[in-house]
Structures
1.
Amino acid sequence: MSLHVLRPGMLTTVQDLGRPGSQRAGIPVGGAMDRLALRVANLLVGNDSGEAALEITLLGPTLQFQRDATIAVCGGDLAPAINGIPLPQQRPVQLVAGSVLSFGSARGGCRAYLAAAGGFDLPEVIGSRSTYLPARFGGHQGRALRAGDVLPLRGTCPSPPYRMPKYAGDLRAPRWSAGLRRDYAVPVTVRVVCGPEYTELEPASRDRVFTQEFEVTSHCDRMGYRLLGTPLAFCNYREMLSRGVSCGMVQVPPTGCPLVLMADCATTGGYPRVAQVIAVDLPLMAQLKPGDTLQFQEVPLEEAHALYRRQEGELERLALGLRFKREEWK
Amino acid sequence: MGSRGAPHTTNRFAPLLAISPLGMSHPSLPPSYAIVPLGERALEVVLGSTVDRHTFHRVQAAVQQVEAAPPPGLVECVPTFTTLVIYYDPLVVAYHAFAEGVAKLLAGTARWPALPPRVVEIPVCYGGPFGEDLPVVAEHCGLAIEEVVALHTEPLYLVHMLGFVPGFPYLGGLSPRLAMPRRNSPRLKVAAGSVGIAGEQTGIYPFETPGGWQLIGRTPLPLFSPERNPPTLLQPGDLVRFRPITAEEYNALAEKLL
């Protein structure tokens, strides 16, 4: 049974947590830009946190469910609604067959994640269901969704996993929601650790990395964001041999305007790597759109790791709490 | 807590410098190297500073050493021209412990002979619609078209690493006589299999992308097939030779590969 795409939205793709392990073949890890939102949505519907979900960008799609389903929408607030009824986010919601999910104007952030209980019945490519658009593989036929597409949902009609009283119309939802969510309000402070070529910036630029505001330009997509600000300068700019890079790295090309690499970035690059956005702040980056502004804040590596461990602990507690609720309900 | 206003020092972790006891007796082992943190989830083992076969073998030996006894927390190794990037999981291991684990392995006493390379022959149809920039390259280099093809097909190129896009090989060994800058404006679409020159490098586009390289020919061989295992035709360490073919041979091969 399936999900029919009535309208595709701006850029809706199937993503999971990507395909680590093949970077030496030039294959990026990829996966959801806001991994936290994807994982919370999956946990809420009882999936493994890394199950494939839909990544919805700015202008959302219109989707019709051909069977009953348990879904959750997390991440940016793109004003989702079912049959016109505003859909509560950060919560599992039970819908009946024929329900139509649509989105309105973005009210905060720009990427939302739709998880369905059971996930999508799509083949894995190189160990993942994430869509890698530049090489057109993975996810749903290696591309963004189009009107007329039909996505197979795995499994049969689920019964509500929790006590879910009537919410509105045909929707059922619990009274509680998951609190694990970042504040996507802009302007935003994004924490980074310094990169190996940070010291190649001349001293005034080293300070300016952390004191000036940068604006996200219209050159922003899943591969990376170009930022605008007073250009940074190097002591002695030299072209580097291609070196390893990964999601979150802040590169500064000769123009002096930083480039923040995101989920589908190449595995190697030749520009100086002056910093890397820490893992727990990547969701903040993922929710930025052209015109938004940000500032970088340096943190020591140990702090970045401590924040990451704390977030993983919170996800574990959420998973455990949800499991207890499911057990109670059975 | 931010450190804005405080002096910024990158070397919060001074690179671990190590001298391998076997450095003198085995040319493949890194006699000296540095380990530096690379962002939040990786470290970089710096094994050289120039693109050459000696550095390549040092990087390859380091990969073998680390993968033979992977330290706890290791996620994956990515060799580049002069470094080995190693990704780790901070939930399993902290940076210092992981870096020490890697340093111990690289100081190990095992012998690592260079792996016997595979020689991969890549059939290329040069010029015509498959290599629109071949005449421009010939003129820029002051050579006849046949000479460009001869110089391009003569060497055994080393695949130093893959990167840029899935399956794209960084090849070492292009004749300096064929060096040519990129196009002033990139093409919006470069066909899969296109063989090009940019600067002092030559490479092959695994799939259709925009690109600014000077295109001199095309191969019908797929460099990247996500459904296959392994998904890439080439691996670091392979030796590549280009073999010129006619348009008819190209079409015949292309049909066979469908």
2.
Amino acid sequence: MNVTKFAAVILGLSALPALAHHGFNMFEMEKDVTYDGVVLEFKWENPHAHVVLKVPPGVADASTVGTWDIEGAATNIMSHQGWTKATLKPGDHIKAIAHPMKDGSKGAALFYVILPDGKRMYQDIARPKTDESKQAK
Amino acid sequence: MKSGVIMQIKTHSRRAAARDLAWRLREKKTFGLVAFATAILCGAAGSAQPPSVPDLNGAYVLEDVEGSGSWTGMQTRYPKADLLNPQAGGPGGGGRGGGRGMATDGKPHGPGETYVVGNGGCGTSGVPGMYSRSAAISIVQGKDAVIMAAEVPGARHIYMSAKHPDFSALPRSAMGYSTGHYEGDSLVIDTVKLAGGMVAGGGRIGPDTHLTEKYRLLPGGKRLELTFTWSDPSIYRKPHTYQMFYAKQPADSVALEEWCDSSDPRQKESITPPPQQ
């Protein structure tokens, strides 16, 4: 890779927000996928919270069947969006709207979840462009 | 003899009474003059109220005001900087975290195999980077200084009086050096000597770049409007201006730490594909 292309790559990367320790290049950030399943584990920890979610066969989107690691933000960021360590617990049936991995691995970056009572919990400050109720089915 | 003493006592008493009366009259006169002067001064002062200081104390979280849906989307709402010299200065370098090593190895990973997705850096985002993050920013106003501390590494010290170091002798830094003052309902901050950082709309930061920020609590007291203006004739054809909006956090919200340990391998971790059940 010559110098010009290298510089272009660096400039392109730096157009993204400066995050202390993490990038999102490995996720399809413009794609929202609904993972409809059961919480196996909710890790309320730093640097990222994680939801391990099992999506059973028979769901609308067959590509989401399986067990997923869905990554959230740091706990301080999620706290300001209303999350606590008790927000999710094993056995909760939720819908997680997330951005899948580009390489097809069973991982995704969380956008928001829909709790059993229908409440939406965003992992960060980003909000959807359109009516939320029309996005997640 | 006795009558003489009595006469002296009476005389003394009359003189004392006279002195007392004179003193009382002088007191009243003095009091009257003071009262009159006070009234004049208060009247004059009433027509020129001391400047009020807007209360910006509190914690604030950046808003995705247009529902962009993503960090990338949020960046597209800012006006493009009108650059005289696109090669001048640089978009990064001030914040020591981020902007480097974000790419993965591009290979698929199996169950239990953790990805290394970042450089694990824990440096401050600096200015303006700290304002583009979703960690809350706390503003603490003092008489001689305003402190802005984000829930990420680093804090800003804004000098509010003439008592500040000679900035010309200091090196460029992630936070730069800032002075501030109040204009009506706004806190206005001037910052110089920023080392670099991401500027919304593709702006750049050079050695002589000057940043002016204006903080204003919007009516209702629940949203903060922050206006950035970047000036540098060697980089910008015209000052580059944009706004960000922040939601004020409840008074009982807790300022949480941003845990970050560069020496911890987990700092670089992201997804660990779980065993399939």
